Amino acid sequence: MIGLCTDSNAQLPPELRERYGVEVVPLTVTVDGTDHLEWVDLDADAFYGCFDHGAAPKVATAAPSPGRFAAAYEALAARGATEILSVHIGSAISATLNAARLAARDAPVPVRLVDTGTASFGVACCVWEAAEAIAVGAGLEEAAAVAEAVAARTGNVFVVQAVDLVRRGGRMGAAAQEALEADAVPVLRLLDGSYQPVAQARSVDEAADAMAAAVLGGGDRLRVGISVADAAGAPVREALERRLAGAPQILDMVRYRVGPSVGVHTGPGTAGAMWYSASGPEVPR
Questions:
Q1: Backbone dihedral angles phi then psi of residue 20, each to the nearest 5 degrees
Q2: CA–CA gap between residue 248 and residue 33 (Å, rounded)
Q3: Quick one: how far is CA 15 from the chain centroid?
Q4: Within a 10 A sphere around the Cβ of 22, how many other Cβ atoms?
Q5: At the top level of CATH, which class does the domain 2-151 belong to?
Q6: In 3D, which of 24, 272, 18 has the Cα closest to residue 157?
Q7: Inter-CA distances, 70 with 61, 62, 109, 147, 270, Å
Q8: What does each C-alpha distance from 285 to 16, 74, 124, 135 come to in angstroms?
Q9: Nearest 5°: phi and psi at 243?
Q10: Cβ(225)–Cβ(250) under 8 Å?
């Protein structure tokens, strides 16, 4: 039996966590000097509430300790796992994988680590496809190869309203900043580590149209995650869902929250989608 582990930056929704029995190790999110564990004692609602009434809290993230990974590996082994696939945020972005590597040395069963080279729901996409491969009989190395391959074919598109926070994060390239218009909300994508402009939207419908076009242009047999940070982004998410519902290209679609470890870079009001084209056979539900 192959157990699955990831970190909370993957933003893995409860639906997928429960479907595949994934252990999720929380990152630390610091808000105004106080440390919290993502999704343990700091959820999305509490995090975005820190920005209410124009507040600008000082926020940061840190990797989990090796001990937290050790506990996750022990939990999977106790549930019957004889080997573990541990899929994580890219090592160039976070020290999370290093902590997992230290814990894997003393794990009760063999652990195969995967450096996805990506972040946020892109990591969840790698977990998702690896879990689907395992469900139809893939072994550990085959499932790891599947996870490693998914990041390269994962697309993303989103809107941000906390543009100043995004600018401070250093990922908004010159092209994106030059394209910003005062009376519009930018529709962006993250590519090669920087935000790039997709469109300028002056209404919810314009934003949803641009995002739906990006998703549906992403190939066939798509597995899609639709995201929202807080209530401010909900109208865009709902409009996007309406445009994607029933599209023949979509194999599976789930909702997820943009949690604290991603929200430190994008802020409140964010909504969007990440997707990839599934390579294996559909698993019966």
A1: -110, 5
A2: 47
A3: 14
A4: 22
A5: alpha beta
A6: 272
A7: 20, 17, 11, 22, 33
A8: 13, 28, 19, 11
A9: -75, -25
A10: no
Closest by CA to 211, choosing from 261, 247, 260, is 247
pTM score, whole prediction:
0.89
State how far the Cα of 183 lies from the Cα of 195, in Å rounded to an integer: 19
Domain ranges of the chain: 2-151, 153-277
Residue (of 18, 30, 70, 86) closest to 261 by Cα position: 30
Question: What CATH number matches the domain at 153-277, 1.20.140.20, 3.30.1180.10, 2.30.29.30, 3.40.50.10210?
Answer: 3.30.1180.10
What type of residue sits at position 83?
E
Torsion angles phi and psi, residue 216, rounded to 5: -70, -15
Closest CA to 228 of 248, 204, 245, 200: 204
Q: pLDDT tens-digit profile of 177-196? A: 665 666 778 888 887 767 78
The residue to which tokens 């309406």 are assigned: 242
Instruction: Dig out the tokens for 233 from the structure.
Output: 């982004």
Contact 202, 187 (CB under 8 A): no
- Per-residue pLDDT tens digits for 93-131: 899 999 999 999 999 999 999 999 999 999 999 999 999
Q: In sequence order, which residues have a C-beta less than 8 Å from that of residue 110 and are 6 or more positions away?
A: 83, 84, 140
